[in-house]
Specification:
The chain has 295 residues and is α/β, with parallel strands linked by helices. Helix content is 44%, strand content 24%. It has 13 helices and eleven strands. Strands 3, 4, 5, 6, 9, 10 and 11 form a seven-stranded mixed sheet that branches.
Length: 295
């Protein structure tokens, strides 16, 4: 049984749609369906439930996800060992990224890296910090962008200090201040993104014993910024998120200055493939000023 069959199954399970999986894998829909059917014949049981809204895993499909992921990871490790023996940087790098890094940095980083190493392809997986951490531990991705601190057991290479800024609606009374303290912030109605996307904000807010007055909790950063721009409260956001958004907002730095440390996280370095090690080394060689200029 070819490995592609397993990879196709994992992608279909991830996106929950055969047509979408075919698009992402550059296969025909019929080709994906054929591969899934062949895998189900080999397993002797149905692995997917087909419905009008896509596909879901059967109980047996759920039981096989992790063994299949392990098999795919082992095959990739074998390929990378062969590349390493031949001193070739090649293969597929599975990379996790949260929204602001994906939007601002990845187009530049991937283009530049592939100029140096044209035999490397990227498989990208978006998610929040918790999802990226889980994907690294499960072996679904080789490395991923996170902010410090990261979970125990991960290797972390810091890359960039991203300033945390206070967002106010235009005309807010705090606009007259050049910088804002935590004490001033915590007197105002506050808007937060959902858990998993609020790690950096919560790290800033823990700097004072007084609790913030959370008025709304929304599911994404853009919704939070939109509510702030319409006068429903204030928030704190990393500078990188604010790039290329044109909303009616006033932005102020914090006193004392606050930052999130963006870096690249992975399993321990002695367990990494040559392509993953090369990519991390490449990222670490970029000066902070260059990361800022990518925006």
């Amino acid at each position: 049984m070819g490995l592609n069959r397993y990879e196709i199954f994992l992608k279909v399970a991830e996106v929950g749609n055969i047509t979408r999986a075919a698009e992402l894998l550059h296969y025909t829909q019929a080709g994906v369906s054929h591969s899934i059917a062949a895998l189900e014949r080999e397993a002797g049981v149905p692995l997917l439930i087909r419905g009008s809204n896509g596909v879901t895993l059967t109980e047996n499909g759920k039981r096989l996800i992790q063994p299949i992921q392990t098999l795919v990871n082992d095959q990739r490790a074998l390929e990378q060992s062969i590349f390493e023996i031949n001193e070739v940087v090649a293969g597929t790098l599975r990379l996790g990224a949260f929204t602001s890094v994906a939007a601002q940095w990845l187009p530049f980083l991937i283009r530049d890296f592939q100029k140096k190493y044209p035999n490397v392809e990227f498989e990208l997986l978006a998610g929040d910090y918790d999802e990226i951490t889980e994907h690294i531990f499960s072996g679904k991705i080789d490395c991923g962008f996170l902010s410090a601190p990261t979970a125990e057991g991960l290797s972390f290479a810091p890359l960039y200090e991203d300033p945390m800024l206070v967002l106010l609606p235009e005309g807010h009374e705090l606009e007259r201040e050049q910088v804002l303290t935590l004490a001033q912030i915590k007197k105002e109605p506050f808007i937060l993104p959902m858990k998993g996307s609020d790690n950096d904000i919560q790290a800033v807010l823990r700097g004072s014993s007084k609790k913030v007055q959370v008025r709304y909790t929304l599911n994404d950063d853009f919704s939070v910024m939109s509510m702030v721009s319409h006068g429903f409260g204030i928030t704190v956001m990393p500078e990188l998120i604010l790039k290329n958004f044109n909303l009616a907002l006033s932005v102020r730095p914090m006193d004392p200055p606050q930052y999130r440390t963006i870096g690249i996280a992975s399993p321990p370095m002695d367990r990494l493939s040559i392509v993953t090690k090369t990519f991390i080394h490449y990222l670490s060689g970029i000066a902070p000023k260059e990361y800022r200029e990518m925006c």
